[in-house]
Design brief:
The structure is a single chain. With about 200 residues, the protein is α+β, with helices and mostly antiparallel strands. The protein has helices spanning about 15-25, 45-55, 115, 155-160, 180-195; strands spanning about 5-10, 25-35, 35-45, 60-65, 70-80, 85-95, 100-110, 120, 125-130, 140-145, 155, 165, 175-180. A six-stranded mixed β-barrel has the order 1-3-2-6-5-4. A four-stranded mixed beta sheet has the order 10-7-9-12, with no helix packed on it. The chain has a three-stranded antiparallel beta sheet with strand order 8-13-11. The longest helix is centred in the last third of the chain and has 13 residues, at about 180-195. It is elongated, with a radius of gyration of 22 Å.
């Protein structure tokens, strides 16, 4: 956390001003939250990218704003899908001693037994909402799927006891399911009809 991102206040708004900022290698952003009014800022796209590569998207960003150091987390990122560029960022200023609610990415680890038998892996929810201290925000929450057979699922209730933080998402929030292959479902229906 030694790198401090320097940001500049900017004028709110006009589309032409925002386009100029982006062409100059900056990202328009806004910072709000703990002890701060909503303030339009700009941040170097290169610095932001470097920081995310080093500390992850869920990291705490120390920022210098008008000579004051502020700790922030990324609240929202708007991206241009065509160019894979960041168009705008919302930063939330935080109190480092208070827990906050964040969305943490869910990553699956291992090869499921059900998939190796022809099942189809479905991951309906890629993130879960957690409550955690800013210094303990995980980059991802890993879920081991090796024992999942066809028809098995993992819900939030199944992992709640395995993590060191509060999960706010509901117990029945599905994280991963192994579905039966389409062909075998059709075959079963044909067999039933023949009987």
């Amino acid at each position: 956390m030694s790198t401090v991102l320097s940001v500049r206040k900017r004028e709110a708004g006009h589309r032409s001003t925002l386009t100029q900022l982006r062409k100059g290698g900056a990202i328009p952003a806004v910072i709000y939250g703990y002890k701060l009014d909503s303030t339009p800022i700009s941040i170097s796209a290169k610095e932001f990218k470097k920081f995310v590569q080093k500390n992850g998207r869920n990291g705490v960003f120390p920022m210098e704003l008008d000579g004051t150091r502020v700790n922030v987390v990324v609240s929202e990122v708007q991206q241009c899908s065509l160019k894979d560029e960041v168009n705008h960022i919302d930063f939330l200023a935080i109190n480092m001693s208070e827990e906050l609610e964040v969305d943490a990415a869910v990553s699956l680890v291992g090869e499921s037994v059900g998939v190796s038998e022809g099942g189809i892996l479905m991951q309906p929810n890629l993130e879960i909402k957690i409550k955690v201290k800013p210094t303990e925000i995980p980059e991802t929450i890993e879920i081991d799927i090796t024992k999942l057979a066809i028809g098995d699922s993992i819900m939030v209730a199944d992992i709640r006891e395995q993590v060191d933080f509060d999960i706010i998402s509901e117990d029945d929030y599905t994280l991963v399911t192994i579905m039966a292959p389409v062909a075998s479902v059709e075959e079963e229906e044909v067999e039933k009809n023949e009987e």
